[in-house]
Structures are given as structure tokens and as C-alpha cells.
Amino acid sequence: MGALLSIPLVGVGGSLLTSAITGLTFCCASTAASSLFKSCNCQSSIATRIAFALIFTLDAVLAWISLNGLIVKKIEDWSGGYLRMDCSADRDRCYGVLAVHRITFALSLFHCILGLLLIGVNDTRNKRAAIQNGWWGPKVLLWLSLIGLTFLIPNGFFIIWANYFALILSFVFILLGLVLLIDFAHTWSETCLDKWETTQAPFWKYTLIGSTLGMYVAVLVMTGILYGYFTGSGCGLNITFITLNLFGIIVLTALCVSPAVQEANPRSGLAQSSIVAAYTTYLISSAVMNHDDAHCNPITRGRSIGPAKPMTVALGALFTFLAIAYSTSRAATQSKALVGARKAKANRNAPPSGYGPLATTDPEAASGGTDAITSQPARKDDLKIQALRAAVEAGSLPASALEDSDDEDDDDYGDGGLSSGDNDDEKNGTRYSYAFFHFIFAIAACYVAMLLTDWRIVKVGGPSADPSEDGAPVVWIGRSPTAMWMRVVSSWLCSVLYAWSLIAPVLMPERFGSD
């Protein structure tokens, strides 16, 4: 879609008309988006994250559609051969892989630009907060324009990008996901237990038991499939990966219910272990399916490993896109799990204007006898604010009077209605780091590219022997042992991190003990 918008850049006729139609379309889209979020009775931070998740999902769908190479071939024809990819060998897959990396690279660049512009924004009273929470029409136009511009970049850049940068950034995203997974495993179990203890409703008990059993059943089924189709004579590496993963699951399961761990953390149990087991099994499955040994990989040989209907594949792909969109939004807001609870708490309690509390030498105020003014006025140091504070301290007015005054002040600093809306929940501090939010989305786009291309690498060979190709270089798509080992190592790291979360309260109860 974005590539279609770039066609007028290389064409001659109809560019002004196309530009006018495009501008009118995005003007209407911007108005519609603003009306939608204003009519939605939800907080601005949530609406913003939903909007970026939708953009992320749409980009993934566009990349998935481009796998067949049809869009790229049409662009090549419409541009008169100017936008051409030299894919002498296996043209269809080469088109698809490079097109996927172009579309996802545009999304990564889009979020990098926004992240750099939003560094240091701590509340919506900052003028730059409008970049995050508003201007949806220009942002969507920028995103689609970047997609179109990527088709003007030579193939050599994206071959290097796909083989190195996208691969490494995908690994970084997996590592961040591991930290969040461990945190989610504990949070899920504790949430179900809290609901069960407070409400005594059997629903939460059966939910916890059912999800745990379901995870373990899925692990056993997937392990059986791996042993049945990806092992055999001469497949020692696959057997080692699968067996080590199964052994690690058994060890973690026994460890989470051991007396020492239960004494240090009574809420530790099979629920967390089942989630970790399912994820590590998924990583190992993905790794062995990417093994470049055709003898040990039926997918490489083209052999079917089970019934696969187009509808099932489509639903599975859609679920993957939505799951990744949710995980990126979740990751960008989990500052506790990624940067530490102490730093997150300090950021939440920091004054929005950057001023700290003033020192006081009044012994009565220091002892707590009378509330003293401990913060410097953010914008207006006038008699009105001083009178309101004095009235609140004397008990003549409720504390909400100061908040109402702040709301009136915010109207003078509203950025297109973003900061002055009733649903603005970030006037006194952002709910998440804007810059880190976009960093997560940028590396997640690289992960989507590797996921859609099955972690394949792109290589350029010698000149083609086909006379019709005029000696064009041969570009072929293959499987990378590096990508396989990255997922294997990620699976092992996940097991180690979860084991440490179980052992740490036992070894250092004063630091990691559950209070």
C-alpha cells in the first residue's frame, strides 16, 4: 500500500492528482481517528498504545501479503523497470523476503524517528507530547511514505540488514521477552490465587488448574511431534536439543514444588513452570524447524508434518500478529520488569516540571505538625495559588480545589486538546517511557520480519548462467545456523532465568524474599 503511494515519485503523469487524493484521504483519516478516540471513554495513554498496536499489526499484515512477491512485481512493471530486484534464482521467494524486510524496516525507522523526538518527555504538558498522543494523520502518512521510499533503496542494503541487523535486533527482542515472560508467569499465578482467596469463586481455581494442565499437555504433544518427525539416524543435534529441553522442564517442575522453594515463596508452583515450559518448547521447535540439514528437517524436504488448511494458516498468522502487537505494548510499559522497581517508582514520583522539594528549616513542619509547601510552583507563582493552598491547609477548601486550579492552568498549555481532555491521565507524569516504547516497537518489527521469512538469510552468488538474466547476480534464500542457535540459546536462557527466580529467594531471602 505504501509502495503504491510511492509510484507517483517515479512516474510522470498523474502525480499531482494522486498527491491531492492522498492528502485528502489522510486528512479525512486524521479527523476520523481523532473523533474515534475522543468518543472512546478511555484514558489517553491506553488509546495511544492501541493506535500504535494497530499500526504495528497493519504493517505486519502488509509484510505478510508481500511474501508472494506479486506487489513487488507490479511495482517493477509500473515503474518501467526502475524498481527492480535481481533475483535470478528462486525469484518468488527472493521477492517476498526482501519485500518483507523493506516494509518492516520502514516501521522500525518510523519508531526510531518518533523515539528520538520524544526523548525526555515526562508529561503531556510538554509540547512534544503531541507527537505521541496526536497528529495521527501525519504519522500514518509518514509511515506509508517510508514504506514507499524503502523500495527505492538498493537490494544490497537490505541483504546486509536482513543477515545481520534484523537478526541481532530480533535476538534482543527475544531476550526482553524472556524477562517479561518470567514476570508474567509469576503475575498470572499470583493474580489467580489472589482472586481465588478473596472471592472464593471456583472459576479462578479451575482457570489456574486448567491453564496449567493445558500448557503441560501442549508441551508433551509438541515434544512428541519433534521426536517423531525431526529425529532419526544422523540427527544427533536435534535429539540433543529436544532431550535437553525435556530434561530442563522436568528439573524446573521439580524445583518449583521443592520444599525449600515453597518455604521461601509459597506462591511458586506449577502454573509458572508450565508457561515457561511451553515457551521453551516453542523456541526449540522453531530452532529445529530452521535446521538446514534436509535429512533431519522434513520441512526442508517439502514433506508434510500434518494437515494444514489455508484457513488454519491464516488464523494462526493473524493470531501471531495480534500477539506480537500486544506483547510489544506490554513490554514498553513494564518498567518494573525491565529497568527495576526502584527506578520506575522514582520516575513515577518525580515532579513533572523537573523541580524537587525545597528544604525547610521549620522544626514544626519537619516534625509533621503542619503541612509545608515542599514543591516549587510549576508555572504560576501568584496570589491565587497561595490563597488556595492556605485555604486547603486551613480546612476551608477540599484538596480537589488545587487540582481544579491545575486543570484550568493546563488549558493554557493544551496541545491541540491532547493535554486538556478529561481522559488525559498523564498530565502529572507519563504512564510509560515514550522513547523506550518506540524502541520496543522498532526491534519488534525486526522480529516480525524474521518470523515471516522463517529466519532465512539472503546471499548473493556469482553471475547467473541464464542468458535472459544478462549476467545478473544470483540471489538465493537459505536457512541460517546462526538463527537456529539464537533460539536454542534463548530457550536455555529462559530456563536459567526462571530457575534463578526460584532459587534467589532461597539463597538471598533478605533481598528477594516475598513480603
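That was protein one. Protein two is written in the same sequence-then-structure order:
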Amino acid sequence: MKKIILIGLTAITLLSACNTVSGFGKDVQKVGDKVEKAAD
């Protein structure tokens, strides 16, 4: 029973981390777009 709970928590943590990294990438892209527009 403990193994199942541990595997579930691990899966949730990994999926959450992926979403966090994805969101961070989008934020960085927005900043890059603003810098490009300012340079033009």
C-alpha cells in the first residue's frame, strides 16, 4: 500500500514540475519578445 502511495506522489510531483518548467519558459519567451520590440 505504501508503495502505491509513493508512486502516486512521485508521479504527481513530476507532472507538476513539468508544468512549472513550461510556465517558466513561456514567461521567459514573453520577456524576450518585449526586448526584441524595444530593440526595433
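The helical segments are 2-39. Keep this in mind for the problem set.
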